[in-house]
């Protein structure tokens, strides 16, 4: 098994975070610093991060959480704000969010200690779809605005990929994206003349928020986790 994957499996960090730990020289194998995340290691080898031995691999878990507004999508915050990890009892397991939602965005977010799954769900190459409901200003979206969203919108960091969009009878927009730029839904809607006034994520891949109450959480079943593992584009 590759070193970065071994650290991720131990629940210490996501795959990408594990790669950074290794590149920064914070990981040793059998007492020697290793900076290659692709280094093959065995279960018998002694691995340490910042001098602390890597614990045995814990049970991997995934929780769906309905994030309220004002809660930040981090596992650590220096400003004393309420964090999404505070919404789920850890029972000694280090959980971290899969991707992020803005503090003022509500809805479905996943927490896990499975770094490999987190990497698959967030890496751009897998294009895992995420669906949002956006309340927007400026009246019902025009066909021109909807067409622009569907074809891709020019933003300051480049043109977006096409989105699946429909206008609901409530006046909200339902948007499904396969990329995850910072505040992307808000920026896209503003660019077509309909600034977002409230935003909620209602689906992540095949998983839907459904009737999970705000601030609530539930552990995903093995079947649900497996569906997440196969979400998005296949391996090249």
Rg, Å, rounded: 20 Å
Number of domains: 3
Question: What class, by secondary structure content?
Answer: alpha+beta
**Can you tell me the CATH class of the largest domain?**
Alpha Beta
CATH topology of the largest domain: Alpha-Beta Plaits
Strand content of the residues, in percent? 25-35%
Task: Characterize this entry briefly.
The chain is an alpha+beta fold and 236 residues long. It is built from 6 helices and 15 strands. Strands 5, 6, 7, 8, 11, 12, 13, 14 and 15 form a 9-stranded mixed beta sheet that branches. The protein has a 4-stranded antiparallel beta sheet with strand order 2-1-3-4. A two-stranded antiparallel sheet has the order 9-10.
Notes on the protein architecture:
With 236 residues, this protein is an alpha+beta fold. It has helices at 3-9, 15-23, 115-122, 143-151, 184-191, 222-229; strands at 27-29, 32-33, 47-49, 52-53, 62-67, 96-97, 106-112, 130-136, 154-155, 158-159, 164-167, 173-177, 196-204, 207-208, 217-219. The strands form 3 sheets. Strands 5, 6, 7, 8, 11, 12, 13, 14 and 15 form a 9-stranded mixed β-sheet that branches. The radius of gyration is 20 Å and the shape is elongated. The protein starts with a helix and ends in a 7-residue tail after the last helix.
């Amino acid at each position: 098994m590759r070193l970065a994957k071994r650290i991720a499996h131990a629940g210490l960090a996501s795959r990408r975070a594990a790669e950074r730990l290794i590149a920064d020289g914070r990981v040793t194998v059998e007492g020697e610093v290793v900076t290659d995340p692709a280094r093959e290691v065995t279960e018998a080898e002694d691995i340490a991060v910042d001098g602390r031995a890597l614990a045995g691999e814990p049970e991997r878990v995934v929780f769906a959480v309905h994030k309220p507004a004002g809660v930040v999508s981090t596992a650590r915050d220096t400003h004393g704000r309420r964090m999404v990890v505070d919404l789920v009892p850890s029972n000694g397991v280090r959980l971290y969010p899969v991707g992020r939602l803005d503090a003022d965005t509500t809805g479905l977010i996943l927490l896990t200690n499975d770094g490999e799954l987190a990497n698959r769900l967030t890496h751009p190459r897998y294009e895992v779809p995420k669906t949002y409901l956006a309340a927007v200003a400026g009246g019902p979206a025009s066909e021109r605005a909807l067409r622009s969203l569907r074809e891709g919108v020019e933003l300051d960091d480049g043109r977006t990929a096409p989105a699946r969009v429909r206008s609901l009878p409530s006046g909200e927009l339902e948007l499904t994206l396969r990329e995850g730029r910072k505040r992307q839904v808000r920026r896209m809607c503003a660019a077509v003349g309909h600034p977002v006034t409230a935003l909620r994520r209602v689906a992540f891949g095949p998983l839907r928020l459904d009737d999970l109450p705000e601030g609530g959480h539930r552990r995903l079943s093995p079947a649900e986790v497996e569906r997440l593992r196969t979400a998005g584009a296949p391996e090249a």
